[in-house]
Each structure stands twice: as C-alpha cells, then as structure tokens.
Design a protein that fits this description.
Order of helices and strands: HHHHHHHHHHHHHH
Number of strands: 0
Number of domains: 3
CATH architecture of the largest domain: Orthogonal Bundle
Helix content: 40-55%
Bound molecules: iron/sulfur cluster
Strand content: under 5%
Length: 368
C-alpha cells in the first residue's frame, strides 16, 4: 500500500488511484470509457448499447461472442491508458507475434510431414548428411533459441519451396526437396525424444486410452497389485503447494494456436459442453458427462483475443463469467478441457496460467 502523499495519478485526466475505490468515481470512469468507444466506433457502440440495455435482444450466441470480441480491444486500450502500461502491453503484443513461426512450422511442416513418418510407432533413421544440412539451414538464425531457430528456418524453407515450385529450375527444386527431407527426418527422430519434451513444435495430443488413464509401473512380478507411477512423472509435494510448474508463455500461446476458435460456429464445447445428436450432454467412454466449463467461461473468445497478444482484453472476457478467475482459473479449466472437441489430453492453458499470473500482478496481466 502506498502511504505517501503522492496521489498516484492515473492515465485518465483527473483520476487518481484512490478513485478506484470510490463507486461514484468508478461510474464516472465507466462513462468516459463508454463515450470513448462511442466516438471511436459508433456502429459497435450502437450494437453494444442495445445489448447492454436488453441483453436478451441478442439471441444468437455467435453474434454475442462477436460483440464481446470486438469490444475487448477498446477495453484493453482504456485499461492500458488508465494504468500507463502502453510499453509493457506493446511489448507483449510483439513477443506474441515473434512466436508465430513456431506455430506455422508446427502445423505446416511437423504435423504434415514429420508426424506421418512416426505413425504407428515407426522408427526413423537420420541419413548421414541430415544433421549437417539442418545445421546449415539454421545458421542465419543462431541468435535465436534452438527451437525458434529451427521453426524460423523451417518457415523460410517453406517460403523458398513455394517460390521454386512456381518458378525455380529443376536443380533448385531438387535442392529444396533434399533440404526439406533432411529437416523432416531431423524432426521425426525428435518427436518423442524426452530431451525435446519442452519444445512446443513437437507437442501433439496423444490418443487417450480411457481404460488406461493412469500409467503405472508394476515393479514386483510376484505382487502384481503393487503399483507405482512412472518415474518420469514423479513430482514431490511440499506442503499444500501445487506440484506442477505454471506453463511458460510459449506453451500457453501454443495451446491457443492449437484451438480452432469454435465460438465462431457455436461449437465451443469447452464452454457449452459436448452434445450428442439429440442435443443432450454427451458422455465420454467412461460414462462421465462432458458439460464444459461450469462457469461458461468464454474460452474460445479469450483465445482469439490473446492470440493477437492482447492479454488484458482476454482477461476482461473471462472475468465477465468468472470474476474470481485469479483464484479459480487453475481448477475451472479442468472440466472445460475434457469437453474440448479438438483434443483429448490438452488443457486450454490460458485459464490456468493467465489467471494466476494476473493475481500475482496487481496492475495488469501484461506480464504473462
Ligand atoms: S478449446 Fe477446444 S472446444 Fe474450445 S474453442 Fe478451442 S478447440 Fe474448440
């Protein structure tokens, strides 16, 4: 708490930090926000004003989501100005965009070309020159971390491939094809290599065996009932602290990129539940109902906004349904991810990481 006489002025003229504790001043701040949106985007404001006056007037979930997603950047800009955090939030946008080659490479190269090589447990052998070719390929990007360097080099190769396919000579085409093959094998041998476990470009949902969910070791053949968890998954508990480390921003954004933004088709089962053909809540093979997020958090909309680097807008969207997200985000996501139609073993991590980080930071969530 600030005990000095400094009134801590905010970035909106005439407001200080203490005003945030005064309902009447908050109302004035809200009016300023509304006036700014009305001036910046009159047509959005007209739609929003009708919606906030009579929420039932917007009956289509797709239209409602669209309104919320379009309003988020306005709120984000206002909060950014209010707390004078333009440089931190701008930096976050840049950091998010810098990660994009990872996800293009993951989907357009690793998933399409390397993953099929190891299908069904097939083993891939690196050819003699493969490593040298890949090292040469990444040479221009050695100032980046190795994962980012491979992804950036891979994207450049994809671009070169498109150009040579359209107008290259036969030699150029052969050279690109040989390089792509070497890179493909290089990636395939690392897909299930524990040393590359942290690389998001090699992480894909595994097929879930519902009747063998908990992997165990049975160390004593004479006592098959004796079971232990796999050593590789052992996490020591210290008191009541959570045992899993929070994900890194790169891992969170990777999951966001894996999301196919189902709210645009009203198919966001993570939020609304997975339904069968008759419209009833579906169950998984274990008979467990898949109702989606118990709070109807707008996960898909939040992903869409965060994907652009706007963590404040994303946080604002989730807070509408879960004002206590800072304390509950880690838990409420668990029911949501089981109902995600796009993957069976991955958590849409934004709720588990953005929320606790927002709780740690008292002014903004731009730190994630
Ligand atoms: S988290 Fe899954 S269900 Fe939800 S919007 Fe993304 S892909 Fe769709």
């Amino acid at each position: 708490m600030n005990n000095s006489l400094d009134p801590m002025p905010l970035g909106i003229d005439g407001f200080t930090y203490a005003d945030l504790y005064q309902p009447s001043r908050l109302r004035e701040l809200h009016e300023i926000f509304c006036a700014r949106v009305a001036a910046d985007d009159p047509s959005l404001w007209a739609e929003w004003d009708a919606y906030r006056t009579v929420p039932e007037s917007v009956t289509s979930p797709i239209e409602r989501s669209d309104l919320i997603v379009r309003m988020a950047p306005h709120l984000s800009r206002f909060v950014t100005a209010l707390f004078r955090i333009a440089s931190a939030s701008g930096e976050l946008v840049e950091r998010t965009h810098r990660l994009e080659p990872l996800f293009r490479f993951k989907i357009d190269f690793v998933r399409k070309r390397a993953l099929p090589l190891v299908k069904g447990g097939a083993r891939v052998a690196l050819q003699a020159d493969d490593v040298a070719i890949v090292e040469e390929l990444i040479r221009p990007w050695t100032d980046l971390d190795p994962e980012q360097a491979i992804a950036t080099a891979g994207c450049a190769l994809l671009d070169r491939e498109a150009v040579t396919r359209a107008s290259g000579t036969d030699d150029e085409k052969a050279d690109v094809a040989a390089t792509a093959d070497a890179l493909k094998r290089w990636c395939a041998v690392r897909l299930h290599d524990p040393a590359y476990k942290s690389w998001v470009v090699f992480r894909f949902p595994e097929t879930l065996d519902y009747f063998n969910l908990v992997h165990v070791q049975r160390p004593r053949p004479d006592l098959p009932e004796a079971m232990l968890g796999p050593d590789s998954l052992l996490r020591r508990r210290d008191g009541f602290k959570l045992t899993d480390p929070r994900w890194t921003p790169r891992e969170v954004v990777s999951e966001i990129h894996y999301c196919v933004l189902c709210h645009e088709r009203d198919k966001d089962s993570c939020s609304k539940g997975l339904h069968d053909k008759e419209g009833r809540i579906a169950t998984n093979p274990l008979g467990i109902a898949l109702p989606g997020c118990p709070l109807d958090e707008k996960i898909s909309e939040m992903h869409m906004v965060r994907k652009s680097g706007d963590a404040i807008g994303a946080l604002a969207i989730v807070v509408v349904d879960n004002p206590l997200v800072a304390g509950t985000g880690h838990r409420s996501s668990e029911t949501a991810f089981t109902a995600c139609s796009n993957r069976s073993d991955h958590v849409p991590r934004i709720g588990t990481t953005q929320a606790p980080n927002a709780a740690k930071c008292s002014t903004n969530s731009a730190c994630i």
